[in-house]
């Protein structure tokens, strides 16, 4: 795409640093909070749940571009103050949506990131204004925007001077009525292929229903998203907007714990803080490591068996090769502060088992194996 001069620069990968949070790095960044800021106490409760879940950024809308003119339009400046205060008290960053010059000017020096919503993705004057500020911009994909149009919207912001753009997939309009929008997870990979910008996912606006948020969030992380923007309300039943798609704080925290596991399984980091401290969390980590150990051992045994096919029965055991392997692994163990004795013992068993299995596959029937191999090999 020739017009993606800045957003499509393949020579880089943008990691956007805000405070001590990096978007686009190894860590999955969790952003949570209500659709609309309603009160100080509501924001305090939301911020506490975000922090306890390992989230880094508190969200909350104060200028709401609502579908109906009669819906709640947001608290404006009063709401920004609730948002900022709650975030600061919990050590979080905060983000809010801007809709025009006036709203941008009102919040730009107060919040840490700005959001441009789906309905304004092609509000080119607003994009140019966002290009003039020194704050990261979360740019949501428009309801019916192609990925190219979305990236060109990012290009507008960048061409105007602000390179700190974070793309946010939030579902697109399709013929399917069972969800509010259709979450386009392939957009994560495509946007990452075409640009160097971080890509996050908002499953809440995509689904429009609370029951799908957890699975979509996990899928988003698995598909390569750099972060999640999730709606959470201390009391969704009484939310002034988007209640049906908002998680409760408890649901949000449970999801965060699951995300830790998904993130690790795709080579990313996410630390749900409460989890880190308890026994269950540590056991989760061990479970993951064990899974990898067994998976790699299985792969190793497949190779051992291929090697076995190339050998004569009386030449299966190769003491020299076993010694070479240990000569590499013992210093590695020392370097990693792992007992060399532990490694030697494990490998003596690995070698023994490998040799046995090679012999076993060369023979027909276990009786012959028993006579050649004292350990049995069953
Ligand atoms: C796989 C082989 O066969 C045996 C098993 C080994 C292993 O498990 O690494 C090493 C040497 C042999 O005793 C081999 O020769 O490489």
Structure overview:
The protein is α/β, with parallel strands linked by helices and 378 residues long. The protein contains 14 helices and ten strands. It has helices at residues 40-52, 77-89, 101-107, 124-130, 147-159, 186-194, 203-207, 213-222, 249-265, 273-277, 279-309, 319-335, 340-362, 366-372; strands at residues 16-18, 21-23, 29-33, 57-59, 93-97, 113-116, 137-140, 165-169, 199-201, 227-231. Strand 8 (165-169), helix 6 and strand 9 (199-201) form a beta-alpha-beta unit. The longest helix is centred in the last third of the chain and has 31 residues, at 279-309. The termini are far apart. Residues 365-378 have low confidence and may be disordered.
Short description:
It holds the Pfam family CM_2. This protein is of the alpha/beta class and 378 residues long.
Order of helices and strands: EEEHEHEHEHEHEHEHHEHHHHHH
Quick one: overall form? elongated
Named CATH architecture of the largest domain: Alpha-Beta Barrel
Residues in β-strands, percent: 5-15%
Biggest beta-sheet profile? 8 strands, parallel, barrel
Helix/strand-derived category reads alpha/beta
Overall pLDDT metric: 92
How many structurally independent domains? Answer: 2
> What is the CATH topology classification name of the largest domain?
TIM Barrel
Instruction: Spell out the CATH superfamily of the largest domain.
Output: Aldolase class I
Number of strands: 10
The strands making up the biggest β-sheet line up spatially as 3-4-5-6-7-8-9-10
């Amino acid at each position: 795409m020739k017009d993606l001069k800045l957003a499509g620069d393949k020579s880089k990968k943008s990691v956007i640093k805000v405070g001590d949070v990096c978007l686009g790095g190894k860590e999955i960044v969790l952003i949570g909070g209500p659709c609309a800021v309603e009160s100080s106490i509501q924001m305090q409760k939301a911020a506490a749940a975000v922090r306890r879940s390992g989230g880094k950024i508190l969200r909350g809308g104060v200028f709401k571009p609502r579908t109906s003119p009669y819906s709640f339009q947001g608290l404006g400046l009063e709401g920004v103050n609730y948002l900022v205060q709650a975030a600061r008290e919990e050590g979080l960053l905060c983000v809010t949506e801007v809709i025009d010059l006036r709203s941008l000017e009102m919040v730009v020096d107060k919040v840490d990131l700005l959001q441009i919503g789906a309905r304004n993705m092609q509000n080119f004057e607003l994009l140019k204004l966002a290009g003039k500020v020194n704050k990261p911009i979360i740019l949501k994909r428009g309801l019916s925007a192609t990925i190219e149009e979305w990236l060109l919207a990012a290009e507008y912001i960048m061409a105007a001077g602000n390179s700190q753009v974070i793309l946010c997939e939030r579902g697109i309009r399709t013929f399917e009525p069972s969800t509010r929008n259709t979450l386009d997870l392939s957009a994560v990979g495509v946007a990452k292929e075409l640009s160097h910008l971080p890509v996050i996912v908002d499953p809440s606006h995509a689904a429009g229903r609370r029951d799908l948020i957890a699975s979509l969030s996990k899928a988003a992380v698995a598909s390569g998203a750099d972060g999640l923007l999730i709606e959470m309300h201390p009391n969704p039943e009484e939310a002034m907007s988007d209640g049906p798609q908002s998680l409760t704080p408890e649901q949000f925290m449970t999801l965060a714990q699951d995300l830790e596991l998904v993130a690790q399984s795709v080579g990313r980091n996410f630390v749900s803080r409460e989890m880190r401290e308890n026994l269950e969390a540590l056991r989760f980590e061990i479970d993951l490591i064990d899974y990898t150990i067994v998976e790699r051992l299985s792969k190793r045994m497949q190779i051992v068996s291929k090697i076995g096919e190339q050998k004569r029965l009386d030449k299966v055991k190769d003491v020299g090769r076993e010694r070479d392997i240990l000569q590499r692994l013992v210093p590695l163990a020392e370097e990693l502060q792992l007992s060399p004795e532990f490694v030697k013992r494990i490998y003596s068993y690995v070698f023994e088992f490998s040799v046995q299995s090679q012999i076993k596959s060369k023979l027909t029937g276990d009786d012959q194996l028993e006579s050649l191999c004292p350990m049995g090999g069953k």
